[in-house]
């Protein structure tokens, strides 16, 4: 207890005596342990507890008599214990406030009694008795620092032999106490070592390092470094344990080169000189004789000049491996400052370096992005006076800025946060005092496009042809620099006499360093100088280079500060200059970041309403005007718009909008129309009643203001309520009136835009109708810039939603210019034009004109446009065209031929178009558009049908036979046809076609919404390749040229094409392993045997294949000469008078039409294919009939015919198909089940039966024909499992006479 | 004493009333305050002798301490401009009238005042020499320059070019007026002779509010 108390316990004063125990965690734990020890002492060691102390422990207590219970004599305040020693003295005596205790048992009792005060009691006791052991056992046991001889002394006493029993107890007691002591000591050591500041390991490292400096030679800094003790404890200390508790780690003797040996103590608190410890045990030598240093090196530096001098040379080694990058970086910067010739090289190196650094640290999260080389450069530029080399430098600035920007972008893209090494970070901080707020910067540059970035600096003219202004300005700048305020003002005024709008003057000011002076003047207190400077800056900042320079020199920050100035002149000048400077993105950002937006918004606060203003108010208005100007400039950034809104700018702008002054209104409306691109502003403009003011201002004389108002309306009128408001405020008429301002293109563009957007509401269209706006608009369709055209056409498109307007457009001759515009290239324009044309085409007469102008073809060609929007609107436009086209055709049968060629043209178009659609179909968003187109395509097919029909009609007319079929019926339901008892063969086929179309369109609708598989898209991409392969099945090795062409048509790369062919050939070989087969045969076999998901070589392109192969021939024959022998024979033998050759031709052509129809989507394509095939089968059936008629052979399986007549690809199809032809008796038109039968797929087992059935039916059919019976053949197409629906197509048979 | 101060107050009020009618920029209370301030500045001894006012030294102190003017010559000229009757003292009347322009003058008044200040010899023109004289301290002398006055001369030429509209190598009042009207900054073209806004504010606060409270 003694050692622990004296050493470990932390006393307030070092000297013993009246010290008090500090309240520290160490002491706290010590006391607790002592307490525990004492508390349990009497129970654990009852005998020893009774031992009477040599001297009582006395202390001032807070205990009172009332605290004591039994076993005590309580008389008033004093208390005596019952227990007494052998002399009769009570073992405990309390005479408040002091208490004296003679034995451990009593101590234990006190501790128990004291309950919550126990800790305080123990503390008081220990404080009063610094060496309790000595008191307990006698002075001979007093703890002597450094020595522990008590046990020895005790042993001596034991040897003496007297008072054996007492001694025995004493020994036990002292052993117990010693145990406690060691326990306490070790505990406190543990605690202390937790708080070590200078750890043994750190000290050891230092010492090792220093030892390395003790080497011989020139670099020698120290003579020797030695520990005083070689023994190292496990905790790394080399001091004796009782010194360790003081936190001392080790003692060193260091001999520097120039001074006496230093005796050093390394402790957790620091390093200091001691009294010179050579051997352990010299007590006084432990004392501190110097200040405490934080580490060995600092101590040595202060004690040994030689060391300090030399250690710096080896600093790099000492300072724990500085990041090498820092060193290099510093060097580089130095080099740049010195302007060394290899600067650019180093610059590059630096860039590389920084990149490397980014990569190094990119994984460290949480760091601030800081990469501002541009700023650094800027500062360099600032520091150096402008001179001849400056030009070069500024160029370099631009380069590095650009570099920084691209790097910023790169960073953004990669989206990692770059943190720097600590060293670098600090250096960066010092170099960029502006402290441009990190993250914001970067996000900013992402949010704003580069579109407004101006041209970087140009080289100024060489010195040879400097204008005279240059020298004069240089002189003035000299006076600006070197004059007092009077001279400055004169110089400033004189400078203003130059034509500051001239670029030479502007650049001269910059080049002679005038800009810096001007901007510095803004920082002075002199209002006159500031005003003069701002007046010049305001003028020259119209130049983009100057703007950049001002921003680079930090002028914006100062000007933003000036906005706070009480002087109104200053305010408005500053605002106006900001308005000029903030024309580019970085400047706008700077303004925002320095709180400029808020201040500018505050400038708006004035009273603009009253017409008569005092001088002061006028100034206020001027300030507000300039504020609005500045805001207008700033509002070109999205974030600034947001900032303006947040600063409460909208109500202020709304108030200023009521101002009667035009020059005030222009910037206000300008700001508003700029901000109206934001939804929040549009709402605000609407709700704050600004529309009314905007409309009011439309009536003014100022074109610019009108333009901005119209533009604001244009942007706001997206909203229906706003459109209504415009109408209610009677804003439509002024808009129409403004259309007469055809010279001012900007105004015209804005006006037409507003009209366009306003006419989205039908009520507005009606109004425009009243104002005869459309007539004017049609007049604007020619000789206008595109931005005007876009709006005009948009307005016409909206207007043409009303039938009356469509007529108006036609009457005004608007169709032709519209159709002409279809040839344009501007995407936005095309979207609008197609819409307008589409809207116009709903009227028959318009359609006629459009048709005449070849507009439909142009629309079709627009389907191939790159822009999906254009495609979509073109597709929409085609809808009404086609609808109307059939009517047109019917009237003018003579046009059939032309239409036919048109149809052929369309077909080609359609093919490529479909390919494109399918190719693009991978994008989900395309689906809707695709859907539109698909439905259009279907309509197109219908149109084709109509064309055929009309041509047929035409031919029939030629043949002199009246068409017995009303065209309307053709488009009607087949049911109707049947009910009407139409027994014409041709119509049935047509009807089937119609039905096919319907089902197809249905299918297309069902599927178009689904996201297609990429695989499918790829297959579709490969379609041209497949076609090629099929065409060249004899030698499927494309030449390079062919490959390139294929690559172009398929939108693949050359490599992809080559690979595709290689793979395709391999597939073919693998599928059919027999050698020596021709490629053509292989392809055929492949198609036959290929299974599963793998697409047949010609399946999805089977139509194309057939087109390439069979169909063209068929087309030729049928379309051309109508001389296909089979048909001819049919015609002849059957004597079908109704079926003239023309009809036959039409029939064939129509079928061919179907064959070539590419599948719109995969599944629908399958369906389509099946349906096509079914049609073919019908044909085949007819053929069969014919054949039968001719050769009277037996019944044929349709399969046989398939193999003969159809492309191999349909073999699979047949497996899934069952044809059932039902022959009805002649005249029985009831057709029992109506032919519309739904038959479930009954599984593959039934297929065979059905085929038989089909064959039977066909036979019957043929027989029926033979017997000149007429009937209806229903063809029930049952789909295979992957097309879930059962489609039924009823084909009424050709009526026979 | 109380009687005295009562009489004195009455006197001041009368004086203030008459003066405030003569001077357009101060109302009666303000004039009264300025009179009190004037009396305060005069101190006790001048209270007795009527007709006396602020002498040159005192006035210059005021200019220097209150309005922060530094140029001796200009301060001298300002004193002259205040001291209309050229008796080397600024009387109460002159004080109020002077301050009226000094603190709240219109542009016209200020142009006149400034021209008076700059017309050193009072001949109605600011000559080349006068300009040189006034501007000679306006440039920091470059030790490298051979002729230290070169810059000043140049500056004078620049000023003449800028302001001398009738090209007679001297500035008439008409020249000066026109130049200043074109460019307000040229009002104090040859040295600060008017207080800046901040010191005006400080002075008025001191004069009108603090004096009233007393």
UniProtKB/TrEMBL annotation, chain A:
Example of a GO MF term: DNA-binding transcription factor activity, RNA polymerase II-specific
Pfam families (alphabetical): Arm, Homeobox_KN
GO cellular component: nucleus
Biased composition (Acidic residues): 441-455
Subcellular location as annotated: Nucleus
SUPFAM superfamilies: ARM repeat, Homeodomain-like, Hypothetical protein c14orf129, hspc210
DNA-binding region: 1011-1072
Keyword annotations: DNA-binding, Homeobox, Nucleus
Biased composition (Basic and acidic residues): 344-357, 390-415
Residue segments, region Disordered: 336-466, 1100-1121
ARM repeat residues: 554-596, 648-690
Residue ranges of domain Homeobox in the record: 1009-1071
Main location: nucleus
One GO process term, biological-process aspect: determination of heart left/right asymmetry
Alphabetical list of PANTHER family matching this protein: ARMADILLO REPEAT-CONTAINING PROTEIN 4 ARMC4, OUTER DYNEIN ARM-DOCKING COMPLEX SUBUNIT 2
Name of the featured protein: Outer dynein arm docking complex subunit 2
Organism expressing this protein natively: Hucho hucho (huchen)
TrEMBL record, chain B:
CDD domains: EFh (cd00051)
Ranges where the EF-hand domain occurs: 70-105, 106-141
InterPro entries registered for this protein in UniProt: EF-hand-dom_pair, EF_Hand_1_Ca_BS, EF_hand_dom, Recoverin
Key word Metal-binding present: yes
Keywords (A to Z) from UniProt: Calcium, Metal-binding, Repeat
Any one GO molecular function term: calcium ion binding
One Pfam family linked to the record: EF-hand_8
Protein name: Calaxin
């Amino acid at each position: 207890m003694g050692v622990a108390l004296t050493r470990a316990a932390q006393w307030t004063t070092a000297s013993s005596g009246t010290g008090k125990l500090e309240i520290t965690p160490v002491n706290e734990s010590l006391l607790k342990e002592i307490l525990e020890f004492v508390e349990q002492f009497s129970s654990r060691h009852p005998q020893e507890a009774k031992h009477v102390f040599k001297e009582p422990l006395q202390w001032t207590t807070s205990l009172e008599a009332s605290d004591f219970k039994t076993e005590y004599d309580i008389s008033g305040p004093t208390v005596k214990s019952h227990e007494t020693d052998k002399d009769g003295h009570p073992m405990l005596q309390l005479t408040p406030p002091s208490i004296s205790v003679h034995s451990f048992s009593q101590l234990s009792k006190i501790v128990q009694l004291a309950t919550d005060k126990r800790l305080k009691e123990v503390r008081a006791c220990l404080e009063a008795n610094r060496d309790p052991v000595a008191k307990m056992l006698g002075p001979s046991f007093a703890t002597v620092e450094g020595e522990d001889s008590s046990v020895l002394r005790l042993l001596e006493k034991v040897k003496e032999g007297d008072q054996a029993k007492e001694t025995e107890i004493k020994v036990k007691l002292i052993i117990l106490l010693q145990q406690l002591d060691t326990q306490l000591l070790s505990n406190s050591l543990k605690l202390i070592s937790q708080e070590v500041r200078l750890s043994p390991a750190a000290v050891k490292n230092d010492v090792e390092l220093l030892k390395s400096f003790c080497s011989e030679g020139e670099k020698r800094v120290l003579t020797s470094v030695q520990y005083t003790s070689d023994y190292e404890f496990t905790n790394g200390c080399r001091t004796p344990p009782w010194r360790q508790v003081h936190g001392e780690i080790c003692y060193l003797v260091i001999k520097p080169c120039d001074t006496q040996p230093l005796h050093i103590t390394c402790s957790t608190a620091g390093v200091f000189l001691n009294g010179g410890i050579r051997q352990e045990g010299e007590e006084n030598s432990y004392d501190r004789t110097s200040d405490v240093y934080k580490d060995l090196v600092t101590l040595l530096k202060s004690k040994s000049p030689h060391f300090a001098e030399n250690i710096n040379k080896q600093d790099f080694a000492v300072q724990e491996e500085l990041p090498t990058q820092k060193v290099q970086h510093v060097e580089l910067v130095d080099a740049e400052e010195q302007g060394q010739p290899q600067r650019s090289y180093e610059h590059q190196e630096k860039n590389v370096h920084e990149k490397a650094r980014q990569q190094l640290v990119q994984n460290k999260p949480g760091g601030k992005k800081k990469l501002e080389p541009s700023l650094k450069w800027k500062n360099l530029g600032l520091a150096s006076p402008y001179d001849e080399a400056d030009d070069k430098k500024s160029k370099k600035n631009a380069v590095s800025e650009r570099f920084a920007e691209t790097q910023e972008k790169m960073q953004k893209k990669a989206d990692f946060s770059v943190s720097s090494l600590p060293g670098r970070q600090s250096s960066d901080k010092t170099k960029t005092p502006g402290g441009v707020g990190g993250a914001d910067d970067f996000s900013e540059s992402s949010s704003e496009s580069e579109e407004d970035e101006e041209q970087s600096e140009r080289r100024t003219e060489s010195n040879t042809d400097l204008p005279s202004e240059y020298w004069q300005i240089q002189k003035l700048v000299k006076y600006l620099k070197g004059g007092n305020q009077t001279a400055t003002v004169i110089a400033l005024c004189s400078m203003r006499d130059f034509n500051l709008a001239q670029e030479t003057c502007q650049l001269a000011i910059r080049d002679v360093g005038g800009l810096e002076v001007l901007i510095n003047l803004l920082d002075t207190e002199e209002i006159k100088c500031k005003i003069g400077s701002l007046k010049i800056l305001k003028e020259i900042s119209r130049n983009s280079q100057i703007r950049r320079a001002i921003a680079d020199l930090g002028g914006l920050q100062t000007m933003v500060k000036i906005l706070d100035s009480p002087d109104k002149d200053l305010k408005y000048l500053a605002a106006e200059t900001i308005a000029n400077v903030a024309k580019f993105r970085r400047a706008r950002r700077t303004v925002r970041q320095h709180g400029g937006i808020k201040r500018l918004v505050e400038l708006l606060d004035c009273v603009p309403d009253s017409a008569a203003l005092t001088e002061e108010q006028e100034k206020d208005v001027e300030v507000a005007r300039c504020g609005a100007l500045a805001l207008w400039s700033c509002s070109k950034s999205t974030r600034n718009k947001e900032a303006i809104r947040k600063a409460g700018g909208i109500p202020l702008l709304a108030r200023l909008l009521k101002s009667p002054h035009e020059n005030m209104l222009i910037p206000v409306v300008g700001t508003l129309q700029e901000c109206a691109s934001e939804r929040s502003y549009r709402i605000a403009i609407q709700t704050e009643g600004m529309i009314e003011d905007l409309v009011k201002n439309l009536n003014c004389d100022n074109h610019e203001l009108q333009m901005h108002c119209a533009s604001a309306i244009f942007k706001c009128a997206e909203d229906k309520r706003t459109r209504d408001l415009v109408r209610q405020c009677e804003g439509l008429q002024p808009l129409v009136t403004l259309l007469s301002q055809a010279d001012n293109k900007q105004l015209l563009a804005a006006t037409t835009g507003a009209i366009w957007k306003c006419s989205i509401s039908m009520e507005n269209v009606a109004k425009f109708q009243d104002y005869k706006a459309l007539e004017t608009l049609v007049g604007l369709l020619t000789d206008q810039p595109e931005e005007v055209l876009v709006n005009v056409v948009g307005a016409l498109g909206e207007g043409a939603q009303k039938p009356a307007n469509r007529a108006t457009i036609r009457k005004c001759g608007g169709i032709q210019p519209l159709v002409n515009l279809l040839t344009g290239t501007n995407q936005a324009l095309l979207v609008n034009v197609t819409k307008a044309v589409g809207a116009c085409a709903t009227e028959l007469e318009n359609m006629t004109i459009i048709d005449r102008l070849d507009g439909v073809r142009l629309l079709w060609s627009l389907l191939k446009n790159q822009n999906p929007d254009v495609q979509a609107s073109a597709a929409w436009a085609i809808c009404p065209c086609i609808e109307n086209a059939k009517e047109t055709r019917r009237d003018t049968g003579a046009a059939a031929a032309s239409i036919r060629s048109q149809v052929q043209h369309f077909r080609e178009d359609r093919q490529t178009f479909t390919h494109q659609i399918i190719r693009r179909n991978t994008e989900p968003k395309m689906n809707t558009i695709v859907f539109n187109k698909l439905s259009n395509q279907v309509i197109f097919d219908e149109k084709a049908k109509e064309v055929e029909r009309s041509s047929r009609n035409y031919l029939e007319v030629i043949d002199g036979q009246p068409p017995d079929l009303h065209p309307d019926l053709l488009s009607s339901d087949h049911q109707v046809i049947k009910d009407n008892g139409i027994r014409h063969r041709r119509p049935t086929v047509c009807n089937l076609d119609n039905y096919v179309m319907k089902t197809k369109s249905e299918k297309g609708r069902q599927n178009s919404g689904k996201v297609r598989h990429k695989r499918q898209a790829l297959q579709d991409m490969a379609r041209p390749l497949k076609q090629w392969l099929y065409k060249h099945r004899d030698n499927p090795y494309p030449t390079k040229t062919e490959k390139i062409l294929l690559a172009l048509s398929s939108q693949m790369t050359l490599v992809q094409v080559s690979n595709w062919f290689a793979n395709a050939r391999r597939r073919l070989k693998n599928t059919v392993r027999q050698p020596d087969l021709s490629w053509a045969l292989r392809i055929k076999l492949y198609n036959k045997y290929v299974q599963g998901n793998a697409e047949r070589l010609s399946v999805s392109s089977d139509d194309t294949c057939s087109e390439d192969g069979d169909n063209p021939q068929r087309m030729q024959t049928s379309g051309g000469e109508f001389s296909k022998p089979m048909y001819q024979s049919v015609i002849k033998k059957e004597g079908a008078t109704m079926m003239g050759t023309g009809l036959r031709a039409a029939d064939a052509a129509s079928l061919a039409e179907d064959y070539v129809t590419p599948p719109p989507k995969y599944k629908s394509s399958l369906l389509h294919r099946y349906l096509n095939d079914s049609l073919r089968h019908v044909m085949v059936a007819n053929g069969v009939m014919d054949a039968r008629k001719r050769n009277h052979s037996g019944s044929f399986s349709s399969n046989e015919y398939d193999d003969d007549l159809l492309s191999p690809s349909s073999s699979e199809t047949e497996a899934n198909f069952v044809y059932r032809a039902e022959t009805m008796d002649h005249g029985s038109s009831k057709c029992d089940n109506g032919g519309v039968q739904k038959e479930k797929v009954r599984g593959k087992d039934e297929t065979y039966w059905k085929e038989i059935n089909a064959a039977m039916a066909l036979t019957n059919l043929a027989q029926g024909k033979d017997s000149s019976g007429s009937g209806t053949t229903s063809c029930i197409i049952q789909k295979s499992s992957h097309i879930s629906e059962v489609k039924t197509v009823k084909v009424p048979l050709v009526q026979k006479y | 004493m109380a009687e005295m101060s009562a009489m004195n107050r009455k006197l001041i009020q009368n004086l203030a009333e008459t003066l405030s009618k003569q001077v357009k920029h101060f109302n009666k209370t303000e004039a009264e305050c300025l009179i009190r301030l004037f009396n305060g500045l005069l101190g006790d001894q001048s209270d007795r002798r009527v007709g006396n006012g602020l002498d040159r030294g005192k006035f210059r102190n005021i200019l220097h301490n209150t309005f922060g003017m530094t140029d001796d010559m200009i301060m001298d000229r300002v004193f002259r401009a205040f001291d209309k009757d050229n008796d080397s003292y600024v009387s109460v009347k002159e004080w109020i009238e002077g301050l009226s322009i000094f603190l709240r003058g219109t542009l016209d008044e200020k142009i006149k005042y400034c021209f008076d200040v700059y017309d050193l010899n009072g001949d109605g023109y600011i000559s080349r020499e006068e300009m040189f004289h006034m501007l000679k301290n306006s440039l920091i002398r470059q030790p490298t320059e051979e002729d230290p006055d070169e810059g000043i001369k140049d500056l004078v030429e620049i000023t003449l070019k800028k302001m001398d509209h009738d090209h007679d190598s001297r500035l008439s009042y008409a020249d000066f007026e026109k130049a200043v009207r074109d460019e307000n900054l040229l009002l104090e073209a040859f040295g600060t002779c008017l207080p800046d806004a901040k010191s005006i504010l400080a002075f008025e606060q001191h004069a009108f509010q603090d004096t009233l409270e007393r």
